[in-house]
Design a protein that fits this description.
The chain is of the alpha/beta class and 255 residues long. It has helices at residues 16-29, 49-55, 82-87, 98-103, 108-120, 133-137, 141-152, 182-199, 202-207, 218-225, 242-254; strands at 4-9, 38-43, 61-65, 92-95, 124-129, 164-168, 210-212, 232-235. Strands 7-6-5-4-3-2-1-8 form an eight-stranded parallel sheet.
Length: 255
């Protein structure tokens, strides 16, 4: 049975004090919530990861990093290694987010190296991918997604997918106020599962959680999460508001 997952990507937001307040609010809102094959993950900025790990130790919240470097160590100023994350208790990392691709020129080839490093170290990877508006308008969205997955992930051995969480994020629906319809999300998620089945097998395809990552909010989460191939969401802006994020978590639990 696939896991349901709600992950909050805090991006470059929240000072330490703001992180403390948000964690306090989330724990209050989620107090007493029982998880049934569900994971709730938050991704603070690097400088607040260790604090977040300590403060969530006895809660249902897991902590993820937003990126890592593929090298074990070395002269890579400003970068963070897998070992550094593991050493402070972080076991999940987001890779391939559209902002990393757009602003920091991360290619599928570079992401493949990062994924390989993360998986080899036993980290769970929330791997992001998705098409631009132009791709969707030109009806190239399926081929773009297929290429991103094949180039970055499909060199992995089948057993590595126990550490992979997929997050489909149509770039045109992030921070724009636009959201893919629930049917559009389902159509793409079904396509992705089909790619996994063709490249590996049906059993693996049915075991991988696929999240939707495009402006999920409490008022649209129920419809999106109700689709059979949507296993939860990678949440951006709404994850910075404890009531909104907690509401989405609770919707996914009953969806």
């Amino acid at each position: 049975m696939r896991q349901k997952i709600v992950a909050g990507n805090w991006k470059m937001n929240n000072t330490l004090n703001e992180t403390k307040e948000l964690l306090k609010g989330l724990k209050k809102e989620l107090k007493g919530v029982k998880l049934d094959n569900t994971r709730v993950i938050i991704a603070p900025t690097f400088v607040n990861l260790q604090h977040a790990v300590k403060k969530t130790a006895k809660s249902i919240l897991e902590v993820s990093a937003q990126n890592l470097h593929e090298a074990k160590n070395g002269a890579f100023t400003g970068e963070i290694s897998a070992d550094m994350l593991l050493d402070i208790g972080v076991n999940v990392v987001i890779l391939g987010h559209s902002e990393r691709r757009a602003y920091f020129n991360e290619t599928d080839e570079a992401l493949a190296q990062k994924v390989n490093t993360a998986v080899a170290k036993g980290l769970d990877v929330i791997f992001c991918f998705g098409e631009q508006l132009e791709d969707r308008q030109n009806e190239n969205h399926f081929s773009v997604v297929e290429s991103q997955l094949k180039e970055a992930l499909f060199g992995l051995q089948a057993e590595a997918f126990k550490n992979i969480i997929l997050a489909y994020e149509p770039v045109w629906a992030i921070g724009t106020g636009q959201t893919a319809t629930a049917d559009q999300a389902q159509e793409m998620h079904e396509f992705i599962r089909g790619l996994l089945a063709k490249s590996y097998d049906a059993k693996l395809a049915d075991s991988v959680s696929i999240l939707y990552g495009g402006s999920v909010k409490p008022n649209n989460a129920e419809e999106i999460f109700s689709k059979p191939d949507v296993d939860g969401g990678l949440i951006g802006g709404a994850s910075l508001k404890e009531k909104d994020f907690s509401a989405i978590v609770k919707i996914n639990l009953i969806g």
